[in-house]
Structure formats: C-alpha cells, structure tokens
Amino acid sequence: MQPSLVRVPSRPKVSSLSSLEYHRRIEGLIKSSDSSPQSILQDVAPVNPMPPIAKLAHGLDRVLFNPGVHWLQDPRTSYYNFTSWLQSVPSVNEFAFDRIIPFITSSRDDDLRQIARREGCLFTGSTSSLTGMLSQIYLLMSQHKSFDVTPLSQHFHNQRKAFTAGQRMPISVILRYKDGVYATDSDKSVFGADVQSSNILATMGTMLEKFLTHPEEQFRRLLLADSPVVEEERKKEPYRYSKHGKFVMRSQLDCQDDRLPGTGIFDIKTRATAPIRHHLSEHEVHTEYQIEHTHGPERSFEKEYFDLIRSAFLKYNFQARIGNMDGVLVAFHNTLRIFGFQYIPLEDMDQRLFGSQKAGDRVFEKCLKLLDVISEEIITCFPEQSVKCLWETTESCDLLRVYVEPVESNGSSKPIAQLDINLINYINGQALHGRDAVSATEDECMDCHILI
C-alpha cells in the first residue's frame, strides 16, 4: 500500500538551520502493514534468461553449515582446513578483468529500464546504489540506536556501540533520467581522490569472488599469464529483479547452495583487516598485520567481527534483503593472504542491528516506503532532468537533509534545492525515540510520520 501524503498549503516557514524559506511542505503517515517478509519485495521476471548461479569451490561449503570462524590454516597445528592454494591472494595485476563482464550501473542496464517501463515504475537501482540511501534513512529512523554485542567477549561490551564515521558519512547518487525512468547511480566523484584507493579493495573483491567459486584449473584461465579469453566467462551475471512501490531493484546473485533455507542464495564478501581499511592510500605498508587469534581485542577474528557490525552489517543486511538471500560468506584477508572464513546468516545480522528478525523486516519495509516518498519529492525539484543528490543525516540524527542539483544547467551556476526531512516513530500510537521504536517487540505496530 502506498503511503498517504497530505500536502499542507501553509505559509512558507523559515528553517531554524538556515536563513532560506521553505516554499513547499508535505507530510503523511506511513502505516504498519501485515506483509510477510517474502512479500515486501515482489519478484519480477527478467527480460532474458538468467545464467546459473555460482557454487562454492574448494570444499568451502562446509563453512555454511558450521557456525563460527573457520581458519584456513590452524594456527596451533599449522594444519590446512582447506587447500593451501587458497592462502595466497593473487595480485589484481595478474587477473584478466577483460575476461569477465564488468559491473553494469543502473543507468547502463537496458534490461532494468525495460523492466521498469513494463512494470510501470519510475525508478531503478542496483544494491550498490540503493543501500547508501536506505542507510541514511535508517540513521534518521533509529536515532543513534546502539547494536547488540552479546556474543562477543567482555572487552567489546565496554566499547562504544555505534556506527563508524564511514558508515554515517553522507552519500551521493545521480538519478539519470531517460524515457520516463530515473536510474539511480552511485556518485563517487564528490569524495575526491580517496575513492581510487577504496576501489582497490572493490577490484580485489571482484577477483576473489571468482577465486572462491572456481576450481584452481578454471581460475587460472582468468589470469593474464594463462590461456586466451574463454568465451563462456563473458556471460552475464545472474540477477534478481524485484519491485516495491515506484522502484525496480536489481541484485547480483553471487553464490547458491540448495541446502540453505529459502532460495539458498548468499553474498560473498571479502573483508580486509582493520589497518588496511583504515589506511587505504598506503595499504601496502600494513600487510604485515595478520589475524592470529580467534578471540581478543586485537589481531583476532572477533575484532574483525566487531568492526563488521559497526561498519558493514547495515549495508550487508539491506543487500541480502534486496537479493532475497540467506546471508553472507565473509573471507578475511590482508590483500596478500586469506586467514579464514565465516558464514553470517541474515537473522544474526538482524539480531545485532535491530534486536530480532521481525524488527529487521519491519525496518526494511519502512525504509523502502520512505525511499519511495523522498525520491518522488526529489524529482519534483527539477522535473524530467537528471539530478545529483547528496544525502546527509545530521549528527544528532533528527534531520535528513538532501541537496538536489541538475546534472546539466544552462546558467553559469547550478541551482540547488534543499529538502529537510523529519521523522516521528509511533509504536501502537505512542511517539517513541527511534532506538526504542526500532527494537519494539514483534507484536507491536510501528507507524512513521514523515515531514518534508
């Protein structure tokens, strides 16, 4: 059900945070629904048949069915739990990226646009471009809600249980207009040269996905020093297409095991150690840092898991839900060596972030509905034009501000529109602080009042 929004033809008000006057105001209530988790997103048929989804190689499927961390090489006995060939990470300079299909942005995906027109939708987006906006909406909704570290040792119970600055930083997207459809692309240009360093880990992640799903002989065909292009490697990646409201969403499907619950699909994530992530521009200097312990405050899988909660679980959670996935398989490395693996089901991420799987479903549905409302308001600023949008939730998390400007402008300077978005959460009709509303019990109804 679409949220009911009421335009309020009141006198323009002066923002308390700005000397500019508001010239438009809308508000409405997004009601709780009885939708099942499976019906939050509706599957839509692809334009063309999808290729098969990859399977794990090297016996890594054992990780899926045994909770906890799996060392690649046991530190006490030096015994290899998996093939020793996996331990050394290939150099990205040796990988033939031209032998695989590169990532296709939403605006360059003709199939995605065709599906949107067929389904009568106004927006398209991939998980990479959507999760940033959904995360900003969640920050506004949850208002500094802390996360749960119950399974971790006492050291981490005493740490600040809040998202990292990187998780909270503003995000920029471009809504590219064509043929009546707005395609959502991530916009990294606003953050400057530092993004080039982060791309090193993204590039390595693409390579390591193939590394973990291809037997050794098949993977070697993707190295520059080996055989020429193998045509079958250029096939399209498998996707899930789904819709909610005015959005058609695309999720790349990394891997599948039919023995897992539901679709059996899961994401593959490659996670560099903390010093690498914190010093991307000089990551080569920090490759001596190794994971040496299962538990402990430093050089441990437990430390890396704690950092995952703070900086990545929210993104992983939204991505898994958009793809109707069971969870994520994480490979921990320092760009030279893989240390181990851990499978994290979606319900575990829900428990850490929201308190329960039911709360996770509720948050996801509300964030999608709010994304619909905000996106439709964004495009009224400069109708039928491509626009660049910067989303920023204030540090106090009581206001989400979106700056909108046209990608192209005839004048010497581009006009900029500013949207200020406030949210009030209600549980069973009672207004509550975001942290309490998000983690409300399963049988309580959550409504959101939005004011733009």
Number of helices: 12
The number of domains: 1
Q: Tell me the overall shape.
A: globular
The helix content is 25-40%
- Total strand segments: 18
Tell me the radius of gyration.
22 Å
Strand portion: 15-25%
Could you tell me the mean pLDDT?
A: 90
What's the order of the H and E elements? EEEEHEHHHEEHHEEEEHHHEEHHEEEEHE
Stretches with pLDDT under 50, minimum 5 residues: 6-17
The profile of the biggest β sheet is:
13 strands, mixed
Distance between the termini: 20 Å
Structure class: alpha+beta
Pfam families: Pet127
GO cellular component, one term: mitochondrial envelope
Protein name: Pet127-domain-containing protein
InterPro entries: Pet127
Structural summary, described in words:
With 452 residues, the chain is of the alpha+beta class. It has one domain (53-375). It is 27% helix and 23% strand. The chain is built from 12 helices and 18 strands. It has helices spanning 110-119, 127-142, 154-157, 165-168, 194-213, 216-220, 274-278, 301-311, 313-322, 346-353, 357-378, 434-438; strands at 4-7, 26-30, 42-43, 69-71, 123-126, 171-178, 181-186, 239-244, 247-252, 255-256, 265-272, 327-333, 338-345, 387-393, 400-406, 417-427, 430-432, 446-451. The strands form 2 sheets. Strands 1, 2, 3, 5, 6, 7, 8, 9, 14, 15, 16, 17 and 18 form a 13-stranded mixed sheet that branches. The longest helix has 22 residues, at 357-378. The protein is globular, with a radius of gyration of 22 Å. The two termini are 20 Å apart. Mean pLDDT is 90; it is low at 6-17. InterPro entries: Pet127. This is Pet127-domain-containing protein. It comes from Obba rivulosa.
